[in-house]
Amino acid sequence: MQNELIEREAAAAAPTVPMNRIGRIAVVSGTALAMTLGLVAVAEAAPTTTTKAQLTTVFTPKKQTYVTPKAKQKAGILHAQVKLKGSYPKYYPMPWSWQVTNKKLKAIATSTMNCKATGLNGKYHDNHASIPVGYKWHSTVGSKAHPHKQKKVYNLSGTCVFSVEVGGQPGQATVGFSFQYSINAGTKSAASSAAPVTTTKVVLDN
């Protein structure tokens, strides 16, 4: 009952935001986010996050490239590739890129992005600061020092943060992705493919 009361009070206290101006991208105020401690505002702020277990994309010689399916490109597009034919490094480097493509997000952006990625169980990091919203952020995970191992499941995650303005009110947008994958160079079967989990959150200042 106490949680229900907090949720109702927070919903009543939250300022009205012109949701139709940015479509399906959720907007919440900093006040509402703090008041509910994640009970209401976080659920509204990250509508694309799934509670289901994330599926794994498997790279094989028959499927060496991954691109986010068109139906899943609500926030952006992830590209990833692992060369598994001919001559290739046995540490299995995976060049990848992430691009924010949502037109409504780009329309409310008022600054460049600061992006960070992690992978290989914390052994891989990439930071790109002050890049334009919509820029194709790219890097490579997997090296001689920190190689991929066959059939092991990995997670590559990235987050981009930038300033926004909605209806004259400033705020901050966070767009992220989480991509679960493995590499199987020895199989002759086709690869399995799954879309990355993406999150989009816009929090307006008080």
State the gist of this model.
With 206 residues, the protein is mostly beta strands.
Question: Would you give an account of this structure?
Answer:
By secondary structure, the protein is mainly β. It has 4 helices and 11 strands; from the N terminus they run αβααββββαββββββ. It has helices spanning 2-13, 30-36, 41-45, 103-108; strands at 27-29, 57-59, 65-67, 76-81, 94-100, 113-119, 124-131, 137-141, 154-166, 169-183, 197-204. The strands form 2 sheets. Strands 1, 2, 6, 7, 9, 10 and 11 form a 7-stranded mixed beta sheet that branches. Strands 3-4-5-8 form a 4-stranded antiparallel beta sheet, with no helix packed on it. A hairpin with a 4-residue loop joins β6 (113-119) and β7. α1 (2-13) packs antiparallel against α2. Mean pLDDT is 78; it is low at 1-24 and 29-51.
Keyword list:
four-stranded antiparallel sheet, 38% strand, mainly beta, disordered N terminus, 206 residues
Overall geometry comes to elongated
Give the SSE order as H and E letters: HEHHEEEEHEEEEEE
Radius of gyration: 19 Å
Q: First CA to last CA: what distance?
A: 28 Å
How much strand content do the residues show?
A: 35-45%
Estimate percent helicity. 10-25%
Total number of strands? 11
| Spans where pLDDT lies below 50 across 5 or more residues | 1-24, 29-51
Q: Quote the average pLDDT.
A: 78
> Main beta sheet: strand number and arrangement?
7 strands, mixed
Look at the helices and sheets and give the structural class.
Answer: mainly beta
**Structure annotation, total helices:** 4
